[in-house]
Amino acid sequence: MQLSDDERVVVEIADGSFGIAPEGASEDCQLSCSLDDFLRIFRGEQNLITAIMQGRVGVRGDLGVAQMFQSVFSPGDQQTPGTTR
């Protein structure tokens, strides 16, 4: 995930959970967004797919992999009052 020109985090999804990828891991999909947008998505305050469609998150590579992130960040996609999706 590219957070800015100089901030990048490589994560992996395995068995429905995610973690920091080992050094040199290959990427199937690259997401680019601000740290603020990442935190909103991570907390379940913003739907990843909606953020992609709004242009807040850029995607390069396999969109199916990006959709896996949504299921990890928002299992069951439970919406709480006052959240933006």
Describe this structure in words.
The protein has 85 residues and is an alpha+beta fold. Helices cover 29% and strands 19% of the residues. The strands form 2 sheets. The protein has a two-stranded antiparallel sheet. The protein is globular, with a radius of gyration of 12 Å.
Briefly say what this structure is.
By secondary structure, the chain is of the alpha+beta class.
Count of distinct strands: 4
Strand content: 15-25%
- Cα separation of the termini: 20 Å
N-to-C SSE string, H for helix and E for strand: EEEHHEH
Average pLDDT taken over every residue: 77
Give the strand line-up of the largest sheet.
1-2
The number of helical segments is 3
Cα radius of gyration in angstroms:
12 Å
Helix content: 25-40%
Uncertain parts: 78-85
Q: How would you sum up the major sheet?
A: 2 strands, antiparallel
Secondary-structure content class: alpha+beta
Outline type: globular
What are the SSEs and their pairings?
Layout: E1 11-14, E2 17-20, E3 29-32, H1 35-42, H2 48-53, E4 58-61, H3 63-73
Antiparallel strand pairs: 1-2, 3-4
Name the descriptors.
single chain; alpha+beta; 4 strands; two-stranded antiparallel sheet; 3 helices; disordered C terminus
